[in-house]
Amino acid sequence: MQLSILDYSEIREGGSPERALTESLELARRAEEWGYRRYWVSEHHGNRILAGSSPEILVSALAASLQGSMRIGSGGVMLPMHSPFKVAENFSVLASLYPGRIDLGVGRSTGGRAETSAALLDGRSGSFRRYPDQVARLAAHIRGTGGARVTPHPAAPPELWLLGSGEGGAEIAAANGMGLAFGHFIRGRAGRETVRAYRERFVPSPGSEHPRVLVSLFAVCGRDEAEAERLAGVFDDYLLDIGEGGRLDRVPTVEEAASRAYTPEQREKIRAGRSRMAVGDPLGIRRQLIALADLYEADELMLTTVSPEFESKLRMYEMLAEVFRLELRS
Questions:
Q1: Mean pLDDT across the chain, nearest whole number?
Q2: What is the CA radius of gyration of the chain?
Q3: Burial status of residue 133 (CB atoms within 10 A of its CB: 0-12, 13-18, 19 or more)
Q4: Contact 312/22 with Cβ under 8 angstroms?
Q5: pLDDT value of residue 188
Q6: Across the chain, where does the E strand assignment appear?
Q7: Fewer Cβ in 10 A, N or C end of the chain?
Q8: Quick check: is 108 in a domain?
Q9: Euclidean distance between CA atoms 13 and 241, whole angstroms
Q10: Structural domain tally of the chain?
C-alpha cells in the first residue's frame, strides 16, 4: 500500500498566507524524503484559513523545489469554474517542465461561496449539468484528441484523476479512463460499492490502461492517543466551522478548541465527522488505514490534516512514514 498527502496550506495562530505556503513547500520536501507517493494541493476560494487558491501555481513551485521522486498535483482543480482547454494548457506546460511527475485531479465543486464563484465565472455559465462534458473535453484535450490543439503536447501528459464521492463521479471517471480519487472524507457511505462500480465500468484509454483508485481521508496522528485526541479536537472545530459558514480566520489552537461550549447539535455533528477521520497513535492509525484500504481494495491512501502547529503536522507524517516504512518503500 502507498501513502500520499493532500495539503490545505492552512494558516495557523501567528501565521500568514506567506508562511502557510512556505510550510507547504517544506512539508513536500520532507514528504519526498520520507517516501510518500504523491503530494496534492487543493483549490479553495475566499477562505480565510486556507492559502491554496491556485493549485497550478503551487504545483509549479512544489515541483521546482523537489528532487523528482514524488508526484505533484491538484486535488483538485474545480472544473466548473474554468475552461477545460485552459486547464489542459496549464497542466501540459507543467508536465513539460516536470516530465512524468504531474497529476491533474479535477472536481465538481465551486471551491468557495456564491460571491467568489460569480467572480470566478465573470458572467459565464457554471452549471454543474455541464460537468460530465467538461471532463470529457478536458481528457480529450490532454490526450490530443480534442479538436482545438493544446500546446505544448508533452511526451508524458499529466496523469488524470477525478475527485468523486458518489456513483456519478465514479461513472464519469470510468467513462473517461481516469483514476478515481474517492473522497472518504466527504462521504464514506456506500464507498465500497462506488469504487466497485468504477472498476467494473472502466474504459481503458491512452496512458491509462487499468483502473486506479486512491481513497482520501482526514487523519490525526499523535505520539500517543491523548495527544491525538487533543489535536483532533482542533480538526473537529475547524470542520464544524466550515459547515456553519466560516467564523474563523485561522486554525484554532488546542486550548481554544478545548474551551468551546458546543450545543448538543454541534456535538452530534462532530461525532458524525469522526467517521471521516482516522485518529490515534501511529500503530492505531496504521491499523485503521490498513482496514480502510482493505475495505476499498485501494491501491493508495491520501491523507489530509489540519493542525494547530506546523511541528505537529510534520511529526504526524514522519511517524506514519516510519510505521508504514515497508509499504512506502515497496
A1: 92
A2: 19
A3: exposed
A4: no
A5: 64
A6: 2-7, 38-41, 71-78, 102-107, 159-164, 179-183, 213-221, 277-280, 300-304
A7: C
A8: yes
A9: 16
A10: 1
Global pTM exceeds 0.85: yes
- The boundaries of the domain holding residue 197 are 2-225+278-328
**Side-chain half-sphere exposure of 171, counting CA atoms within 13 A:** 6
319: three-class secondary structure by DSSP: helix
Q: Do 169 and 180 contact (CB within 8 A), yes or no?
A: yes
- H helix or E strand, kind and range, residue 240: helix 225-243
In angstroms, the CA 237 to CA 268 distance is 12
Per residue in 279-325, pLDDT tens?
999 999 999 999 999 999 998 999 999 999 999 999 999 999 999 98
Q: Which three cell numbers stand for residue 216?
A: 482520501
DSSP 8-state symbol, 6: E
85-144 per-position pLDDT tens digit: 999 999 999 999 999 999 999 999 876 677 777 787 777 766 678 999 999 999 999 999
User: At 94, which CATH number?
Assistant: 3.20.20.30
Q: Return the pLDDT at 325.
A: 84
Distance of alpha carbon 253 from alpha carbon 310, whole angstroms = 12
pLDDT of res. 328: 53
Q: Is 80 a member of any domain?
A: yes
Give the model's pLDDT for residue 197.
Answer: 94
- Give the pLDDT confidence score for residue 109 in this predicted structure: 81
Query: Which residue, chain included where needed, has cell 507547504?
Result: 24
Which residues, in sequence order, are bridge partners of residue 301?
A: 3, 215
DSSP state letter for 97 = H
Tell me the residue length of the chain: 330
Q: pLDDT higher for 116 or 273?
A: 273
In angstroms, the Cα distances linking 265 to 70, 233, 248, 323 are 42, 16, 19, 36
3-state class (DSSP) for residue 221 = strand
In-domain check, residue 201? yes
